[in-house]
## 1
Amino acid sequence: MSTPTLFSLDDFPVGCMVTDNKRHIVYSNRYIEEYFGYSPHELVDADLFSLLSKASQIIYEAYIVPLIAREGCCDEIRLTLVTSAEKLMPIVVSARHDSVYDRIFWSISSVSRSNQLFEKLTETKSLLEQKVSLLRTLKDTDPLTGLPNRAALTKYLDQEMLSRKRNGMAFAVAFVDLDGFKEINDRHGHHVGDKTLQLMAERLTGNLKSDDMVARFGGDEFVIFLKDCFSASLVEESLTRLVSKLAEPFKVDTLPLNLSASIGVTLYPQAKDVEPGQLIRQADQAMYQAKLAGKNQVCLFNTDNEVVQKEKHSELLAIRAAMEFGQFELYYQPKINMRTGKVFGVEALIRWNHPVEGLKGPATFLPVLSNTPTGLALGRWVITTALCQQQIWLQKGLKLQVSVNIDGYHLQHPQFLRDLSAILSDFPNLPKQLFEIEVLETSTIEDVSHVSSVLNACRLMGIRISLDDFGTGYSSLSHLRDLPVDTLKIDRSFVKNMLTSNNDLAILKGVIGFAHAFGYGLVAEGVETLQHSQRLVELGCECGQGIYIAKPMPARAFPTWIDEWYQQACQEKYKNSFV
Ligand code: C2E
Ligand code: CA
Ligand code: CA
């Protein structure tokens, strides 16, 4: 009888590692030692960070730690490991948290190995997908839900439009997109995702008239054809009922779940002739409006909307072209200490040198960029340009803190930290603590814990964070509790009214007292007169920016301004009151 072979973790063809709650390595198998060149005693008790590149340390703090805290595990995350020979080696890690012993179990493999596996998998997957799509076009049914598919609905719509033209009856086309489906799929896997789609398909068919038609368009998108629609309000009413049915909690196996749906709907006939495909696009656009308006609701398409969309599109094209032609420029507004007169920093504020309309302020073009790839590209441009300018000034002996404004959607974008690290790595000699990010307090921060970990990662890099327009947001204090912040910028509306409104003065005093108590830095915006400056200093807010000190100016004007400021302007403006 042969003896059974005993395997140990040392025989595993991947790296296995265990860390404690202080990131210290308590175990690593032979693979890690051999492959990455460490000896066993080098690894035991070592800080996991000593094996990771700087960027990976950030990813660890910003993504892996919150993910593990939330879900207990993370899968297939790419990091860079520093080998014992100090070479950088890309790796793929997965981790599980053991809550009993408060340990994290890691599996680690080199990227080349996982790439091979991945390539094989994608090859097989694409072959399978080709087969499936062939089968799908042969049949008119969506295999998962049993509903008609896109091809079937399009055919049906063509026929119906032909016959409606003859009999003149009205109908509606609705586009349904589930809100939060991706999270269910990502969090609980495809099995649960598939069951959810089947259940939603049942709810859709079960809550419509028998001669209405529901088709699955793909993913979590469905299209409904509603017959005999007498008025827009009736259609909206019945779809609103449908939305609340879809939002009812449900269970997959024993797992309690809930999601909602956004529905866009368009009516036929219309003033102008439309094609079937156009109707679906209109419903899709209206669905998008429903998402923007906060999801879980119905939005009716109207042709004005179409005009707005077209305008938005052409504005975006113009902005993209302006970026290419270098028409954007950063202006810089000084920030000073109003007690000593010292200029300690500048805020970068974007301007568009429009060839026809002249100099345009951010309010005229930033809103249309919200949540668009062009907006992200412009955000990256702002950071790069500001850093570049800071470097030029530093080389001339001007040491200034430079701050940039970052929109909420940019900050929350998964790519943000990677972009920022990449840009910063082009300026290795700049002291990071001289760079500051201003986060708009009112900007929509959807996932506070995510933003908080991003800001933490920024601070780990040495960057300072300031909360902009402080006091105007609906949740100033709760944001402060959750977000790691160095400085509060008091919104200019409070400063503006402090001399005339007791209410605003009281808020201002409250914010100043609060900042002192908790050790935040303070900068007042909108300092427009000497009285504002003096009163702010009396109240305990020494730092300010505003047109009394200087308007935002192009970079080339700054050296002259600062020379004049120190030579005479500051003494004149502050009547020699500086200490
Ligand atoms: P903000 O961050 O509150 O910037 C200060 C705004 O106040 C600037 O307007 C500035 O010109 C104006 N200002 C300065 N001193 C005074 C004063 O004494 N009185 C008054 N009433 N206003 C003063 P601007 O340049 O039009 O910028 C408006 C907003 O646009 C900024 O508000 C910021 O939220 C956003 N913004 C500007 N540049 C950028 C950028 O590069 N990226 C992003 N994402 N947002 C930017
Ligand atoms: Ca700002
Ligand atoms: Ca502000």
Note: The domain at 9-111 is CATH 3.30.450.20 (Beta-Lactamase).
## 2
Amino acid sequence: MSSENPSSNNTAPTTTLIHRPRRLRRTATLRRMVQETTLSVDDLIYPMFVMEGEGQKMEITSMPGCYRYTLDLLLQEIAEVSRLGVGAVALFPVISEIKKDDMGSESYNSEGLVQQTVKAIKQAIPNILVITDVALDPFTTHGHDGIVDENGVILNDPTVEVLVKMAVSQAAAGVDMVAPSDMMDGRVGAIRKALDAEGYIDVRILAYSAKYASAYYGPFRDALDSAPKFGDKKTYQMDPANTREAIKEVALDIAEGADIVMVKPAVAYLDIICQVKNNTQLPVAAYNVSGEYAMIKAAAQMGWIDEKKVILETLTSMKRAGADLILTYFAKEVALILANS
Ligand code: PBG
């Protein structure tokens, strides 16, 4: 009994059915022909962690298979993922405590870790697209994405001023795209204006438009040692219960000049991805965040799920929901899987 033969099931029907959707599922060829969504290596952006020093990589305990790399080893890893077809990396720096302050001023140091890393990547592997994060949390002693006043309030406009300096210094280092992940009001417009004024008209903005105050960021904060020292991020990141607010945030970022809008996290927010997609002509990105990665890794390590299949199914669901691009720690693994399938 060949499952490849669509007409092998020729026994007389016991009932008359006009529609038999299973006809189109009978063979692998047919299933491929009617498949509505495809996951491609072109969709993937690889978030990577860079630290100071040389010749070292440190695995992140809550993110097995993800490392903090020193620049030399980061370059090797990027060269490898580039060979596998991954087109873009998103950089996150691990900043040593002595360089942190209340204002996050290391974030716009022209010789800072991010700026040096961007320069080195663009020199060594010019065809990989480099995206840098614009937010203060890796650089502040308190771990918040913005400047905090004496009452613990995160100040919007003074923070935007620092974010602008940060984005301009990343552009000066040669970055292709900046990604404000801070959720301050008005930062996309302010960054666009400053980039243009400095002549960086082609530096794109990937806006974390609908970024939720999510517990799924836990492992990432371990990776960067950036967990907030007090309070939470609910006065700037969005309430997980809200949809219309996401549409509003996306509309504002588009009006302010975003080139790509993003929803974050992804798995628990597929409905938001779908709605955002229906409300914009811009490309939509989804961030498959650290906690989502950690859950799949943990279950796979326990032998409870088929890791490769679950990864592909999960990322395909984001594409199906409407994501054009996916930031995922699985990027390298998926590139390998797709290359061998
Ligand atoms: C910080 C930032 C976070 C992530 C990306 N940029 C964490 C946070 O907002 O606390 C999370 C990424 C992840 O969990 O994979 N601006």
Note: The chain has one domain: 38-339.
## 3
Amino acid sequence: MRLFDTHAHYDDPKYDTEYPGGADRAITESRKAGVERIICAGTRPETNSSTLKLAEEYDYIYAAVGIHPSDIRFFDRKHDQTLLKKTEEQLAHPKVVAVGEIGLDYHYEETDRERQKFFFDSQMKIAATHSLPVVIHDREAHGDSFETVRRYPEVSGVFHCFSGSAEMSKQLVRLGYCISFGGTVTFKNAKEVKEVAATVPDDMFLIETDAPYLAPSPHRGKINLSAYLPLVVYALAEIRGTSPEAIAELTYENAMRVFKLR
Ligand code: NI
């Protein structure tokens, strides 16, 4: 079984403090579990740089670079244009396969939604200019996220760790977006995401860990690793009534196509 983890963050400092051997060991362990390729996603210029460093170090690691909606709070508004410019420069690296992660996160009340929308829109434009797919983070912002991607028909990509409804997933698929599933499909009470996982077309879904976050059951609440990706595969196989091997192969091929790796 060969696996493609389409979303992880191995530059996260959690690996230094919570995992013996750190990120390097976590990456190496994932190979033993059949993970042949990993996309690491940056969230602001600093983490984009550390992600690119990992992609230089490991030939099977690729990078997405972008500005995450939750990370813009680290910067003063007067630097917004500089931040975007810096991100666009980072896209020139040969291991970059997508603009991401970008999107909207309305989880926290105090968040500046207009500024998040400005960054999301600007980066959709950047993706269009560079003909790159996007990796989208949509947390509790389904309406606005959909409304934004709909305005850029020339862009497509993936909704990572999808948490919307089956109806929304159908509309996204129609726009050319893949739906990516992670640890949440293994959770007992995740009724909605399981419904999405049961109905999304074969050629329109991907798998991911979002490591070090969102560890699948039975590791829920602990540090996540790409080596746990088979747990996501088993859950999807059960939900879709097929074999783990079929899920692994489909999602591997889908990822290769979406991120233009051949
Ligand atoms: Ni992420």
Note: The longest strand covers residues 96-105.
## 4
Amino acid sequence: MAEEKKDISVLLTEKRVFKPTPEFVEQTNVKKWMNKHGIKDYDELLKKCEDIEWFWGEMSKELVEWYSPYDKVLDWNPPFAKWFTGAKYNIVHDALDKHIKTARKDKIAYIFEGEPGDIKKWTYGELYTEVNKLANALKSLGVKKGDRVGIYLPMLVELPIAMLACAKIGAVHSVVFSGFSATALRDRLIDCESKVVITCDHFYRRGGKVALKKQTDEAVEGAPTVKNVIVYKRIGDDVPWTEGRDHWWHEITKDQSAECETEKLDANDLLYILYTSGTTGKPKGILHAHGGYAVGTAQTLKWVFDLKEDDIWWCAADIGWVTGHSYIVYAPLILGTTSIIYEGAPAFPEPERWWSIIDKHKVSVLYTSPTAIRAHMRLGEEHPQKCGLDSLRILGSVGEPINPEAWIWYHKYIGREQCPIMDTWWQTETGHFCISPLPITSLKPGSATKPLPGIKAAVYNEQGEAVTNAGGNLVMLNPWPGMLRGLYKDEERYKQVYWSKFQNTYLAGDVTRMDEDGYFWIQGRADDVLNVAGHRIGNSEIESALVSHPKVAEAAVIGKPHELKGESIAAFVVLRQGVEPNEELRKEIREHVGTEIGKIARPDEIGFVNDVPKTRSGKIMRRVIRAKAIGEKVGDISTLANPEAVEEISRAK
Ligand code: WTA
């Protein structure tokens, strides 16, 4: 181990650059395209694709089939972009319908592996039939174009089926991560006025069963727009049932036709709403539309991960987050790929579970998060070393900055020093990768390298000037096809959050440095949003959950650097008058946050204090609290209303 450490630090001090071999480069999708267009290298490729309308127009020809052609590639009316205007389209045509007319009909779309080890393979043809039946069932419940449908399902193939069934009839899906609580689900169902919810009875997680139907019932009780609930039977244990409202998936689809006409929509019609955390308590409903999103997701997957007909793709994210929406559901299906869907926890029941999945199903491209890599790193390299892993040819990382040590470990023990690592930067808002290497790019461990072809990004200082080798604001200078279309029912917030700091420029909210070679080093969120194990959680969301506990008067939440999770959650809590702090209460408050938001949001530490530092206008000074809590210099506190509260942080019990 000591020797290994030395090995890694030597690599880091050398600032080693990993260059792909010419043989590897030659057979990539991107290089083949470059050859066709007479483009000789990476730099020339980026230059050529600065004409974004030309580039994305070309890409659309290769990847999607419109029902009727578009008039314009881009209609840019800042901050609103429309892509492929005038085209009639539905993403389900490319994800399913077109494959049914070809040999892809019998190709495997998904290999499902349940946590107990059950395996089921789904062909494109089988997927198509099940989607049509469910789409007809939704219609029978009165769901129409534009209606919102909530989906609360774990990692089962029924989740993509439910999403595609909605999209097929022009309904807008809103998937809520199955790790979120009933309260979080309820808030989202209310906000988007869902008519129907699709869920399951239970599912397996770490050897136990999660009672999803019970949680759905709790949520639906307070969401009056929901008139029907469709329940997929994953396990078969008893569940609470409301006659008239609840329908078993297998019963409601049983007699439905196996054909359902795909609704011919406008390319800019809405496909889905996905909620993500922002700086204020209420999550933002990010809007994505059919046409541009289809082109952007499929193009980036095809080039970055170089997917070909015989690849087995495993994006080991949860479909409840954008990574799964774009790269387990839509993009791989458009490309006709075979993908893995795994129900369970990573190292369960044994540390090599993931690696045995790779060997068993001959996974050729693996895409995961730095948190998962660090967790496996801690378990030890002897586990992947027991497995062959020789089917792998490309690796990927997403969700948070990957520290160079984790990069090197991933490269060495999972990639056997043969697989390039694509560190992809993007967001729920961007819809698809924006800053990422291609398999032809020279890699620097820890850098997401450069903006992709057709994407223009920069690092701005506070005055809006581009800066090199200094921390600044990551911004996007041009619109891109998968760009969010706004926030659900909140145009003002959309303009204010993303477009008000710099004119006609998208503010990503990440602190970033660009080095002298034009490589981007993403450092983390600039705003009050935590990144815990690659998941975005707003500080204020957790504070609101804490304050909703009857014994809590006030709370401040900060992120602390954490070896495994990137960031851990530390909460400082002021109790109500007369309430005495004790261990039991600490546990109770922690679990309360779990119930309000979900387990991922439970604070790692809760400290009881008499007051938290605030500005004169009553804003909690998280910057000051964080500095104090992690032992950094606190800086100027003269503007605080209660400077004495700063010392409370170090006295927290
Ligand atoms: C962070 C996930 C560094 C970043 C796809 C961003 C990253 C937020 C990377 C979006 C990366 C994502 N390197 N940081 N490769 N990828 N992030 O919306 O802070 O859940 O703003 O989308 O994750 O998180 P979201």
Note: The first strand starts at residue 72 and ends at 77.
